[in-house]
Amino acid sequence: MTDTDLIQQIREIVGDRGVLIGDDVSSRSCDPFRQVPAESPVIVRPASTEEVSQVVTLCHRLGQRIVTHGGRTGVSGGAYASSTEIILSLERMHRIEEICPTTQLAVVEAGVTIEALQNAVAEHGLFYPIDLNSKGTATVGGTIATNAGGNRVLRWGMTRQNVLGVEAVLADGTVVSAMNRLIKNNTGYDLKHVFIGTEGTLGIITRAVVRLVPAPASQTVAFVSVADNDALLALLLRARRLSILSAFEVMWPDYYDLVASSGTDRRPVEPGQGAYILIESMGYNPELDQQVFEEFLTEAFEAGVIVDAVTASSNKQIADLWRVREGAEIIVKEMSPFVSFDISVDVRHVDAFVDRAKQFLTANFETVRTATFGHLGDNNIHIAVHVGPDTTAQEAEVERCVFRALREFEGAITAEHGIGQTKREFLPEHKQPGEMVMMRRLRSALDPDKLLNHDVLF
Amino acid sequence: MTDTDLIQQIREIVGDRGVLIGDDVSSRSCDPFRQVPAESPVIVRPASTEEVSQVVTLCHRLGQRIVTHGGRTGVSGGAYASSTEIILSLERMHRIEEICPTTQLAVVEAGVTIEALQNAVAEHGLFYPIDLNSKGTATVGGTIATNAGGNRVLRWGMTRQNVLGVEAVLADGTVVSAMNRLIKNNTGYDLKHVFIGTEGTLGIITRAVVRLVPAPASQTVAFVSVADNDALLALLLRARRLSILSAFEVMWPDYYDLVASSGTDRRPVEPGQGAYILIESMGYNPELDQQVFEEFLTEAFEAGVIVDAVTASSNKQIADLWRVREGAEIIVKEMSPFVSFDISVDVRHVDAFVDRAKQFLTANFETVRTATFGHLGDNNIHIAVHVGPDTTAQEAEVERCVFRALREFEGAITAEHGIGQTKREFLPEHKQPGEMVMMRRLRSALDPDKLLNHDVLF
Predict the structure, then answer these.
(1) Under a CB-based contact definition with an 8 Å cutoff, are residues A51 and A42 in contact?
(2) Which domains are present in chain B?
């Protein structure tokens, strides 16, 4: 079938508004950080699960491959689409169908952005705790497909922990409506977990039920320094005993020195220490929450764990402290070009791992600069690596160095961002053989022709 | 092949200690509440994942069905085994391989009991929050396979939320070692979720990595009464704003009147109200936790939500209040025979659902007595139903009445206990057609001959 015929048949299902072609396709980037044009002949924009099912059924009959688009904020190339693939975008399915303040859940279509959801539930005194820089564009469907994380995972979990139910369309058009609204439900397989985090390879998520929590009434942030790695771990163990802990963000000296030197407003404590930590609490009893938090800090200080600390409770001060942690634009300004990593490693081994990675890098490159920071409470660290002006050309070799070190410490090559298309080559060596066997069997069972997100994952 | 030949081949894999036959098999009950003898020719007790894999490979070659046994505490017949099935028990795999106080995780073999795990981690100041009455016998493997819940789900989640990694053997003997130790890990499919809660139909869990939390340093319990359902929901919404909330257990008058009349030590507040609630907090700052809890109670009282309340902080008083909630033996004494339900329903509909269920029951039976209680914070309620001396014979009809009411309110026929063999007939009418299609496809992909737990689920 020619593209023209295919588009015509699709148009009959989704109508004119549901079809984009020509410049409307090629002007759209599949990557949030650089222009990676969609090469597809058409972007299909269904308005309902039923339309998604009809389009997928048609494609299944024709053996036509599909790439699913949410907000295209993924940084692993999960949205890249070739000329032999059509794009199915959930952008017209952006209805918030229901917000229930008593049961504390929302029912939404997959194309709703995280920010739209957060704003809508805030009006009911509720909070959707998935916190991402890209929340204005990232969609509920996309974040479920990639099991997105963020800054508050150690309190409320990854996206997986915040989803109650999912509706999805399988590669043959079958609609699986697993729109569970209950916290406890052991009635058969909990199918949502087969769609969460599988990067759109097992089905197209069209709707979801998400769990909400009461909007926190208190927020306190401290910015502290510790002398060395032992003190850092001691502080983390103490922080885990803070019931209202909502973030534990670590910045190592290579990161902090860079950011702190960019201006005094980004230097809350003096440099020269072993690590810097932003600790945040959120709760529902402002006065006593503050007291609990202060007691925690005082005790850590008296025990000699903390060297220096500043605390903030006003919104302005809190935002200022978070700005130190969110200094991405300073890395861009001072370290470009760089390769960026999103990895997980056992908290006990972070120090040794970073040393080892630098060792491998130094053996390969004359210049090696790094900036290391991350959500240590969840084992998740980010590293930006610069190896000179040709860093981008050397990306594969930089990755090999870092991942080789990671393998020694049984770390994960992606904590939050996913494998997508860009990390695909590394997946088999970071999974056990039996895991690869089982992943292939599951995908074959649900999509034997690999029509959905064909080049993603494996 | 004769049973004798099969047993001989199995013996060559697992040795004499790994094989039970004759009385050692038939004397073993597959049900915790009544004698349901294992009818199998043999109980195989491998000592390692490798031995499990060899036994399963042999069975796969022979088309031999296998029923997996953990602690046999499941109440849905998941462990029932016929004469054509061999039993594979994990009872010899009860090693706690590692407890890591810094990373706060434990690595265990599947046959470790929940109590053994809890005791071992307590020595390191840690806590495994899955809380079950059967914890002395229930195993880590069994509770993962059934995604067990318990009293503290609203704080720490179901078993699913407390498992980091799983090792399992597929029906053809393939070992899937997905022993993840990291909180954030989006490296490919998160395969543990395919084994968790699928009741042993997709693989045999042999080892696991479980997540631990710091052992709480404070525990406070209040026992309160409220006038009606509106007040009950208002109280639940307030309790959700208590960061240290660890249990919210509701007893309706049919339950409380029964238990309270059994002795004054089980009557913490006066009867005659709409509902009775045990509220528990656990935290890490005893003094301030107590203050937060008391402020919560005071405010609920002043707002007219609570009618009456008693509070306990000593271990003895706390145990006494929990005994009111755990009055199963009084139900057994006063209401036998009865049919017991473990269901989930939206908190907004609990009242209407119970009324509707009673309406259906009363239309069918002259005598209808109920006792209703449960973990309302998780939508999970338990109902014991007595319809006269022949209740047991009428079990199927009683179930039909309750499940029919449940369907009107989109409830779940099992919140914690699972489908097993005994609720299997009800599963299709409580799942969407697409869900059944997908469940069958997944099972076919991993166990096309249905060799594992053949009669479980569907």
Answers:
(1) no
(2) 3-89 (3.30.43.10), 96-214 (3.30.465.10), 218-326 (3.30.70.2190), 329-420 (3.30.70.2740)
Residues of A within 8 A of B175 (CB-CB) are: 434
DSSP symbols for A79-106: T---TTEEEEE-TT---EEEEETTTTEE
How many A-B residue pairs are in contact by the CB < 8 A criterion? Answer: 259
Measured between alpha carbons, how far apart are the two ends of chain A, in Å?
Answer: 28
Assign A164 to helix, strand or coil: strand
Contacts of A347 in chain B (CB under 8 A): 102-103
- Taking the CA of residue A184 and the nearest CA in chain B, the distance in Å comes to 5
* Cα–Cα dist A48/A69, whole Å: 15
Smallest Cβ–Cβ distance between A434 and the set B174, B183, B213 belongs to: B174
CA A366 to chain B, closest CA, distance in angstroms equals 31
Per-residue burial over A226-264, b = 16 or more CB atoms within 10 Å of its CB, e = otherwise: beebebbbbbbbbbbbbbbbbbbbbbbbbbbebbbeeee
CB B108 within 8 A of CB B211: no
Quickly count: other Cβ atoms within 10 Å of residue B408's Cβ: 14
* A214: preceding bond cis by omega (within 30 degrees): no
Distances, alpha carbon B226 to alpha carbons A95, B294, B333, in Å: 38, 17, 27
The 10s digit of each residue's pLDDT in B47-96 is 999 999 999 999 999 999 999 999 999 999 999 999 999 999 999 999 99
Residues of B in contact with A161 (CB under 8 A): 157, 161
To test the contact with chain B by mutation, choose from A154, A181, A184, A407 the residue with the greatest count of B C-beta atoms within 10 A, namely: A184
Q: What is the pLDDT of residues B279-288, one digit of tens each?
A: 999 999 999 9
Q: Enter the ipTM.
A: 0.97
Distance CA A278, CA A222 (A): 6
Which of B161, B243, B376 to mutate to probe the A interface, most A CBs <10 Å? B243
- Taking the C-alpha atoms of residue A434 and residue A136, their distance in angstroms, rounded to an integer, is 39
Question: Which chain A residues are Cβ-neighbours of B343 within 8 angstroms?
Answer: none
Report H helices in A15-81.
23-26, 49-62
Q: Which residues contact B298 (CB under 8 A, 6 or more apart)?
A: none
pLDDT tens track, chain A, 458 positions: 789 999 999 999 999 999 999 999 999 999 998 899 999 999 999 999 999 999 999 999 999 999 999 999 999 999 999 999 999 999 999 999 999 999 999 999 999 999 999 999 999 999 999 989 899 999 999 999 999 998 899 999 999 999 999 999 999 999 999 999 999 999 999 999 999 999 999 999 999 999 999 999 999 999 999 999 999 999 999 999 999 999 999 999 999 999 999 987 899 999 999 999 999 999 999 999 999 999 999 999 999 999 999 999 899 999 999 999 998 889 999 999 999 999 999 999 999 999 999 999 999 999 999 999 999 989 999 999 999 999 999 999 999 999 999 999 999 999 999 999 999 999 999 999 999 999 999 999 999 999 999 999 99
